[in-house]
Amino acid sequence: MPAPLPLALYVHVPWCVRKCPYCDFNSHPLREPLPEAAFVDALIADLEHELPRVWGRPLDTLFIGGGTPSLLSVAAIERLLSAVRARLRLRPGAEITLEANPGTVDQARFHGYREAGINRLSLGVQSFDDHLLTAIGRIHNGRSAHAAIEAARAAGFDNLNLDLMFGLPGQRPEGAEADLDAALSHAPEHLSRYQLTIEPNTAFGAAPPPLPDDEPLWQMHQLGRDRLEAAGYRPYEVSAWARPGRQSRHNLNYWHFGDYLGIGPGAHGKLTHTTEQGVLQVERHHRVRHPRDYLARAARGEATTAGREAISGPALALEFLINGLRLHDGVERDLFSRRTGLPLATIAAELAEAQRRGLMRDDPDRLAPTEKGRRYLDDLLGLFV
């Protein structure tokens, strides 16, 4: 039988100080004291419920996201990581990431997280411009963003990602350049730089702010690409840039269609099993979304799983491509069959059409988009729907 796929663990912390108007994640403003002990209890029970499905498989990466995970105390993070280690074997050097909001941390807390075992930090800076931060509803300002980065460095974090947005309300190309220069002044190992988009079911979806037109947006994109490449960063995914060897291993596992457990309110996961006949079976699972329901189920000793779904055939092929074609250099051709169990011939006609349109490279070794394909990724993926 094929070797088990790489396995990751995603932990979702659903609370934040205030809901950002552009955010469509499963996050909830904290209106009362955070039920920290009960929440960690629920996460541990959630993990134990899934253990039989991954028994014996080592954990390659762990990512604590949200919401605002840095609302959790050092003691809570320490207890959570200890519980994970007691139930799953972490590979030596496993990447353990925590997302943090610059408005909710200080050096002492960063130091505690580092001591607990967090070895990669992702800071949601978004911008260093006070006016723009107010416009997008962030709780920090430019000064506290710089201070948080400096505190993280002082606490010993040498693997740091900064989230940065462009195309913000009223932003001009020179403003986007100033934000990028401010971020680069801290020499982060990784940068996630993406354009603000208006999503339905958000405050901005209901009342959209005035956003830059296409021409200045394209200037911001081009300017960012040139500045990052000149500074030694390489694009490896649609919105991800890294110094050599500093790509997000957790996110690469998603894009290479690896397996992952998802625990916490609204978390999603994907697991692959091989039958005795050597047939791959891919299943997705998701948890109940609302923290109140999640905690109530856990308190009653009930499973917090809201549903499981087997994926096969064309839907499975499309999911693989949605992930793999986000990567700048795509994926190895044989990874398609190794991750889906489907022959590459399943998508041969669509591949030929994508190459004819100049959206994918004619490469015997890789399934990879061209520069045009990366620019028009939705059109490329539409060929496989």
CATH superfamily of the largest domain: Aldolase class I
Low-confidence segments: none
Number of strands: 16
> Which range does the strand content fall in?
15-25%
Neighbour order of strands in the largest sheet:
9-10-8-7-6-5-4-1-11
Largest sheet: 9 strands, mixed
The number of distinct structural domains comes to 2
Structural class: alpha/beta
Oligomer: single chain
Spatial gap, N to C terminus: 30 Å
CATH topology of the largest domain: TIM Barrel
The level 1 CATH classification of the largest domain is: Alpha Beta
Count of individual helical segments: 15
Shape: globular
Radius of gyration: 21 Å
Mean pLDDT: 96
Helix content: 25-40%
Task: Give the CATH architecture of the largest domain.
Answer: Alpha-Beta Barrel
What does this structure look like?
- Strand 9 (234-237) and strand 10 form a beta hairpin.
- The strands form 4 sheets. The protein has a 9-stranded mixed sheet, with helices on both faces. Strands 12-13-14 form a 3-stranded antiparallel sheet. It has a two-stranded parallel ribbon with strand order 2-3.
- The relative contact order is 0.12.
- The model has no long low-confidence stretch (mean pLDDT 96).
- It has helices spanning 36-54, 74-87, 107-116, 130-135, 142-154, 173-184, 203-206, 214-230, 249-255, 291-299, 313-324, 333-340, 348-356, 371-375, 377-382, and strands at 7-13, 15-16, 28-29, 59-66, 90-100, 120-126, 160-166, 190-195, 234-237, 240-242, 259-263, 268-274, 280-287, 305-311, 331-332, 366-367.
- It contains 15 helices and 16 strands.
- It has 2 domains: 7-252, Aldolase class I (TIM Barrel, Alpha-Beta Barrel), CATH 3.20.20; 313-385, Winged helix-like DNA-binding domain superfamily/Winged helix DNA-binding domain (Arc Repressor Mutant, subunit A).
- With 385 residues, the chain is α/β, with parallel strands linked by helices.
- Helix 1 (36-54) crosses helix 10 (291-299), helix 2 (74-87) packs parallel to helix 3 and helix 6 runs parallel beside helix 8 (214-230).
